[in-house]
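Hey, resending since the last one bounced:
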Amino acid sequence: MNQTPAPNWYPDPKDPTLMRWWDGTTWTDHTNAIQGEVATHVPPDDSNVKKPLTKRAWFWAIIAVVVLSLVGVGIWFTGQITTIVNNDRPTTSSPTPSTQTTSASGLDNGDFVVGTDIAPGVYRAEIETGFISLCVISQEDDAGGTLEARASNEGSLIFTVENIVGSHVIISGCTNIGLAHDKLRKNPSTITNGFWLVGDELPAGTYQGTIDPHSAIVLGLVTQFDAHGEVIHSDGDTQGEMIFEVKDVPGSVVDFTGFSSIVPV
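The structure tokens again:
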């Protein structure tokens, strides 16, 4: 049975840089900047205009949906997810030794030095089943600054390892990890939540997604990234059907979250 979240401040489904008040039935107009003071005024009329999500905003939106969904179904989570995406240029000092090496069967969860333990390229990982099913992959510079981070709790996750000297890739909660083009899903009978390669797996065009009404947090999200992880387009809604366009951009990736069905139209 679907459990409605109690009245409280939650991440804004349209702007993850804000907290928005949920009154137990619907979202209100009251917002609170995550790193600022609580807003005491109603946002201007143009605050409802949908804007593309940044890499940082997209990642926090997915994490918020996953964590709130777990809370909504009564699962207690004692860990903490802390990931910050920054755009500082990486340094080029000597690589940090890795805590995990590759094997003939492929990659596993662990820490990999780029160029030594893991080659640059586009990778796909499935979600490892566990108490909390959440696959997270991030790339950090040699000072520990996060260059890029992605997470998924359903389907599969696609991540680009950039060729940056001294950086390393951290993989957690994932399984069946390998190069994306070695794990293509050709002509799938159904399109599911998760990551898809545009062109190789998912044709460009118009799609309709039905937002899953049985989720603890009812929220459908679609994001298309270019080959370097920059957001091309993003959209989201909280009920009914949602129409969106997958653009014909070579090397791009689309991520679907929160849908019960996805079909071309």
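The longest helix spans residues 55-72.

Sorry for the duplicate.
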